[in-house]
Design goal:
With about 150 residues, this protein is of the alpha+beta class. It has one helix spanning about 1-55, and strands at about 60-65, 70-75, 80-85, 95-105, 110-120, 125-130, 140-150.
Amino acid sequence: MTRRRSRRAASVAAALLAVTAFGSALTGCDEAQQAAGDIVSSATAAAASAAQQKMDEVKDGATATADVKAGPTSVDGDRTVAEITATNPKDKNADYTILVNFRDTEGNLLDAVVLNINGVEPGKSKSGTARSNRSLSGATKAEISQALRH
């Protein structure tokens, strides 16, 4: 009887040990996933900050978000790209500096880039390609966060 109890206790102990080890392994995976997520969030924040600094460098720019449209995204090599079109409603040539955000389907910011489209003639449109700073996974959408005509 004692031997049987001893075996049963050993079996229970082994099962608990296995569950504990498995739980620890999962916790390690969760921690690694969290760390990777933190790195991506940090890189995204840095890209957004750098892009905003570039926008802030534009002097005497007029808000022109209504002049600019983003096309659908696609993949070019390891980067996400979108065609951005600026239409100049003014009576003289204009340059555009555009802050483009790449977002996932839930609206989370994945990347931010600045695109310049120069020499847009009056009443005409001109396009450029916004290219992500890094590889983005999943479905993405490009949006015009800010556009300046100068």
